[in-house]
C-alpha cells in the first residue's frame, strides 16, 4: 500500500504545496490525481463533482495537467512541435497553434519561443515549455512535481512569478516540493504527507520552516554543511588548459569548454556552480572520458588520463554519480544487482578474470542495500520500481563501494528526499575525511555552499569566478552564475541583496583590498569554523539515531 | 527465478531431445495408404498457374486423367525451400500410393534420387534434369534449339536491331535458353545488339517474381530494345505486361504457348511467339508408360527434331517469316547448325 | 522474494501461452473462413508432426533455424538489427564449400571449413558494423544491402568454369570429400544431423557469453541503455563492431548443417531465407537460448506439417499464416505482459515498503 487515508483539499485559484519525502507517497498520489493509477478506495471531487480518472487523457479532459519531474520533451523537435504533439486537434499544427502558444506565453509571462529546438533550451526554458504544453491543452489545475529541483535561485523566483500569474488568472496549482523555504514563500496552503498518509496541513503565514520540517520528517532538517576542513596539499585531480568543442544540432562546431584549470586535492570538495547548460555536463564527461578534449591535460593522482578510456579511468579510481541517473547511472529494466555491476564490471566483487561473479555481486548488493538503506523488498526488483531517492542511494552505495580517489557527484541529491539527502551528504563527508577528492556539481546552492571547500562558478564554458563557501550566500553565487559577476566573489555585509544592487556581484570597492588569492589559500589550509555554520552542527546525532532506527526496521524483513 | 526457469527449461529440452533421439512413435511412412492412385505431380515454385512451365506439366496430367482415366494429385513448392521439404513432398506422394511421381523442375534432381531409392516399386520422373536410379525417368529438353528459333524470329522482327533476354535465375538451365537465343539472333542479324540479364543470381525466387521481371523489361525497353524473350517461369508475366504497354514491341513467351493463356489474354497481341517446351508431352508419356506396365526410365531428351520443343504460331505474328524459321529448323535438325548450351563469354 | 520469483515465472510463461492461444483462435477463424474444418487440420498436424520420422525431420530443420536465431539474437541483445544473417550465412557457406571442395584437407577439413565459414560470416557482418561506427549507416540498411551484394558475389563465382561445376542443370561447388562429412545420429528412421551438437554448444556458448562474462554484461548494457553503457565505461563503437562480428560468425554456422550434412556442396539449390526465419524465431524466443530452441522446433514442426496440410487439401499458405500470426501475437503478448509485470512489481515494492514503514512505526511507538 503506497497511500492510505489521504485527505487533500485544494482551493481554487491557489498554490497548494504538497510536502513529503520521496517514497512517502507523493508521486503515487499525483499519479492517482492524474489518472495514471486507480485508487483502491476513496473519492476525488473536482469542483464539487465526483470524478473517476482512468487515464491521463481523462485528467486532461477535466482540466488537470501535470508537469513531470523528468521532462517529457522530444529533444529533436521544436517547441511548437513538442507542444502540439498529441494535441493536433486543438489548434492544428501550423500558424494557429503558433499564435496560441504566443498568446499563452504572453498571458503568463512564460517567454516561450515556439520555433527553437528543445535541445537548445536550458532547463528552466524546458520547464516553461512543459507548463505551456499543459496550459495549451486547457488545464485549469496544474500539478508540478519538484519543479525547483533543477533550477537556480533566480530561476526559481521567475518560476514563482509564473505561478503567481497563473493563480491570479484563477488557475489552481499543486506544487510538490521538499524545499521548505520555497514552499513557504509561494504556497497558499500546505499539506504534508508522510509514509503514505497526510499528516497535517499548514498555513504558510503561521508556520516556520522548522515546524514544517518536523511535520514532514518528524525531526529537524539535516544540514549539508561539513564539520571541518580535511583539505590536504596532495593534488588528486588536476585539469590544465582544457578545451573541448562539440558539434551542435546545426552542424556548427562550438567551443563548449575553454581554458578550464583547477586542482582538487585529497580530502577536498570542489563545488562547481553554474546554470545548467554552461558546460558542467561536458566538463564531467571530459573527466570521465566520454568526450575527448581538444587541448589540455587531465591528471589523476599523478597519472595523466587526458585520453584514457572511460573504463580505465573508472578502474583508476573515479567514482561517478551522474546528473541524470536514468540515462547515465542505471539500467532501469535490470534488477538491482545488475545495476550494482554497472560501471564496475571489471572490478571485484563483480567479476573474476573475464567472468562475472553473479553470486558475489548479489551478496554485495545486499550489503549496499543494507548499509545505504536502499528501501527495496529485494535485489531482484528492477531499478525502475524504486523511488528516485532509493535509486540514488543505490548509485552512491555502488560508487563508494569501490573506494574512489575522486568522486564526481553531479546533483547527487536531486529529487531525493530529506532522509536520503542527509545520508548522501554523510557519505560524501565521510569519504572526504578518508582523503577522497570530490567534484560536486549542484543546482542546490545550499548544498553546494554547505559541502564544498572551494567554489568555482562556470559560465559559458569557462570558470569565471571563485568564492569562499564560508562567507558566500546563495544569492551572491546565483548572480555570478548568470554571468553578472566574475573574479573572486566577496560576501557583501549589511545584508545588501546583490540582486538589488546595480553593480551586482562585481567585486565591490570595499572588498577589493582583500586580494583573492590569499583568501583562497587561507581557506584551503585552515579548518573552517565560521560561526555561521556552527549552530547546525548538533543535528548530526539525531540523524544518526533516525538512520539506525530505519536499519532495525529493515532487518526484520 | 532465472535459475528455476533455466533448470526447468533445460530439463524440458533434454527430455524433448531424448524423446526425439529414440524417435518413438510410429513413422509417418508406415501408415501408407492404398496404391495406384494415379499420378503425383510436384510443381516447382510458381505453382500450377504459372502460365508457363508448371502449367505445361499440369496439362500433361490433365490429358492423362482424361485419356487414360488415371487419378492424380499435385502439390506446390514454396519459395526458399530446402532439400528436406522437397523430399517430404515426394515421399508423401509416393507413400500415399501415387505412381508415377513426377518432380517438375531440376530442383527435384537430388530429392528424386533420394526418394526413388526408398520406393523402388514406384516410377519417378524429373523434368529438366538427369537423376540416377533404375526407376527414374529423366526428361530434358532442347531449350537451346527452341530458343535459337526464337532468336531468329526476334532478329527478323526487331526494327531497332536491339533484342533482349531476361532469365529468371542465372543457372545452367536458363543459360541454355540464353545461349540458343543469342546464337539465333547473331546468325540471322550479325549487327543486332543483344542485352541479356538475369533477375536473380541464384535465388529460385526469380521464377516467382513478376515485379522484378517487369522492372528489368522496362529498363530494356527504355534503352530501345523492342523484342524481349523471357525465360523465367511465372516471372515472365511481368515482362510480358511491360512489353504490352509499349507500341511496336514484342514479347516472346516460354514453356507454354503463352498467347493461348487466359491469364495473359490482355497482352496477347504483343506475344510474338512462345518457345514451347512440351513438358505436357513428356509428363503424359511417363504416365502412359506406367499405365501400360512398361515404365520409362533413364534419360530422355525431347529435342527440336522430336517436337519436344517448338515455336508457337498462335496469333499468326510469325507467319510472314515462316520460311526462314523452317530453314533454320532444318539446319538444326540436320545437324548443320550446332546450338550451344552455354552462352559465349563475351 | 520467492513470491516474486513465482510471479515472474508465471508471467514468463504467460506471454507465449497467450500468444499461442491467440494464434490458435485466429488461425481457426481463418481456416474456418475458407470453408474447411480447422480442428481436422490441427489433428493432421499433431498426428503427422509427432511421427518418428517427422521428429527427426523437425530437429534437422530446426538446427539451422536455431543457429540463425542465435546470430540474430546477439544483435538484438544490444539493439542491433542484423537483417543480414541471410547473406552472411550464404556467403560463409559458399566460401567454406569452396575451401572444402578444392583443397585436400584430410582430417582437419571440418574444423577448417567451420572456421572459414565463421570468419567469412564475421567479415561480412563486420562491414556493416564498421559502416555504422565510422559513417553512421544504419545496420538495417547496410546489412540488407550486403545481402544483395553477397548474393551477386555468389552468383558471379557460382558459374561453370569459375568456382563451380555443372551437374545436369545444377551448378555447384565440387563435392566435399568423405572426410568432410559431419557425423550423424542414426535413429529408427532417418539420421539426425550431428550438427545439432554444434547448435547446442552454440546455444550454451551464447548463454554463457551473455549471461556470465563481463563482455556479455557490457553487451547487454549497451542494449538496455547506450548512454548508461557509455558512462559505465563501455566503448559503444567497439561493442557494435564486436557484436556484429560475433553475430556474423554465428551466422556463418547456419549453412553448415546443410553443407556438411546434406548437400556436401554449395549449389544453386542451397537453401535461402533461413536468416529471415531466424529473426522470427529470435523474436519468438525472446533472445533466450531455450526459448529460441523451442521456437526453432515449433517452426520446424509447422514447416513439416504444412506440406502435409496441403496433401490433406488445405491451402499450403495456412502454415505461413499461422507463423505470421504467432509472431504478431508473441510481440503483442510480451509487451502486454511486460507492462503488466512492471506494474505489479511497482505495486509490490510500494506495498512492502508500506508494510516496513508501519512496522518501524510500531517499533518507534514502542520505543
UniProtKB/TrEMBL annotation, chain B:
Compartmental location: Cell membrane
Main subcellular localisation: membrane
Metal-binding in keyword set: no
Keywords attached to this entry: Cell membrane, Lipoprotein, Membrane, Signal
SUPFAM superfamilies: Periplasmic binding protein-like I (SSF53822)
Occurrences of domain ABC transporter substrate-binding protein PnrA-like (ranges): 43-339
Database matches in PROSITE patterns: PROKAR_LIPOPROTEIN (PS51257)
InterPro entries named in the record: BMP_lipoprotein, Peripla_BP_I, PnrA-like
Pfam family, one: Bmp
Its membrane topology: Lipid-anchor
UniProt record similarity statement: Belongs to the BMP lipoprotein family.
Protein name: BMP family ABC transporter substrate-binding protein
Source organism per UniProt: Streptomyces orinoci (Streptoverticillium orinoci)
Lineage, broadest ranks: Bacteria, Bacillati, Actinomycetota, Actinomycetes, Kitasatosporales
TrEMBL record, chain C:
Pfam families membership: BPD_transp_2
Record carries keyword Cell membrane: yes
Subcellular location: Cell membrane
Chief place of localization: membrane
Keyword entries, A-Z: Cell membrane, Membrane, Transmembrane, Transmembrane helix
UniProt-listed InterPro entries: ABC_transp_permease
Membrane topology, as annotated: Multi-pass membrane protein
Residues spanning the membrane: 56-76, 88-105, 111-131, 140-158, 192-210, 240-260, 318-337
Lineage: superkingdom: Bacteria
PANTHER family assigned to the protein according to its UniProt record, in alphabetical order: ABC TRANSPORTER, PERMEASE PROTEIN, GUANOSINE ABC TRANSPORTER PERMEASE PROTEIN NUPP
Name of the protein described by the UniProt record: ABC transporter permease
